[in-house]
């Protein structure tokens, strides 16, 4: 088949339309964020009680892991929501959008590591700096998607003409 020919019976989309469709990028991103959130919780371990130790005191040992999980969960959720909102403005993807999105996912995949590092070494400033670098990397890469998209009118939805909308 030639470029632009319809693929598959009933698909209704040409090869070019399927290549530019952002739904696959969004599906991958949703799956990666689901895995990231799942991995975050694995760092919280049920405490083993020592002889004559109360559950309350044992749980206090888990507190740094729970706090690290909570912070990283909120960050991951905010990043996913921001990504979802960003892609409501993107009508088509191209190779650059795909690679920039993968770069964003790479940085986001480091969240469980940063969270575990922060939980285990919460009093070490290096752990906080590493976590901060991971947060900066996810923000910078998502911003790169936006900058590229806004400079490539072919991938952004046309703005609504409010006069004709009403």
Average pLDDT number: 85
Which range best describes the helical content: under 10%, 10-25%, 25-40%, 40-55%, 55-70% or over 70%?
55-70%
Query: What is the beta-strand fraction?
Result: under 5%
Query: How would you sum up the global shape?
Result: elongated
Note the gap between the termini.
43 Å
Quickly give the structural class. Answer: mainly alpha
Q: C-alpha Rg, in Å?
A: 22 Å
Structure description:
- With 166 residues, this protein is mostly helical.
- It has seven helices and no strands.
- The chain has helices at 15-20, 23-41, 55-87, 95-109, 111-120, 125-150, 162-165.
- Helix 2 runs antiparallel to helix 3 (55-87), helix 3 packs parallel to helix 6 (125-150) and helix 5 packs antiparallel against helix 6 (125-150).
- The longest helix is centred in the middle third of the chain and has 33 residues, at 55-87.
- The radius of gyration is 22 Å and the shape is elongated.
- The termini are far apart.
- The model is unreliable at 1-9 (pLDDT under 50).
């Amino acid at each position: 088949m030639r470029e632009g020919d319809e693929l598959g019976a009933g698909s209704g989309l040409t090869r070019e339309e399927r290549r530019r469709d952002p739904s696959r990028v969004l599906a991958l991103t949703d799956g990666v964020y689901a895995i990231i959130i799942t991995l975050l919780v694995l760092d919280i371990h049920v405490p083993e009680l020592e002889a004559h130790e109360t559950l309350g005191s044992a749980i206090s040992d888990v507190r740094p892991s729970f706090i690290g999980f909570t912070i990283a969960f909120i960050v991951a959720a905010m990043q996913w929501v921001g990504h979802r909102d960003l892609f409501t403005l993107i009508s088509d993807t191209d190779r650059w959008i795909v690679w920039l999105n993968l770069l964003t996912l790479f940085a986001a995949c480091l969240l469980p590591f940063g969270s575990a590092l922060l939980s285990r070494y919460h009093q070490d400033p290096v752990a906080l700096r590493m976590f901060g670098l991971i947060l900066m990397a996810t923000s910078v890469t998502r911003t790169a998607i936006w900058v590229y998209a806004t400079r490539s009118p072919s991938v952004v939805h046309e703005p609504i003409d409010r006069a004709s909308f009403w």
